[in-house]
């Protein structure tokens, strides 16, 4: 008995909306070495998430000019 797998097409906008709603962490490491001697090691970590503005005034409305 075989099952038909339902294929769902997801638009790129919908995929980005789902990822940004929950957030995603990207981590990586790069090592530059010569003759098995590590010269440079770079560790990278990034958090990608959406920022929700609570008011439409933005930062300009937060300033106290006087």
From TrEMBL:
Keywords: Gas vesicle. Coiled coil: none annotated. GO terms for cellular component: gas vesicle; vesicle membrane. Its main location: other. It comes from the Bacteria. GO terms for molecular function: structural molecule activity. It is found in: Gas vesicle. Signal peptide: none annotated. Belongs to the gas vesicle GvpA family. This is Gas vesicle protein GvpS. The lineage of its organism: Bacteria, Bacillati, Actinomycetota, Actinomycetes, Kitasatosporales.
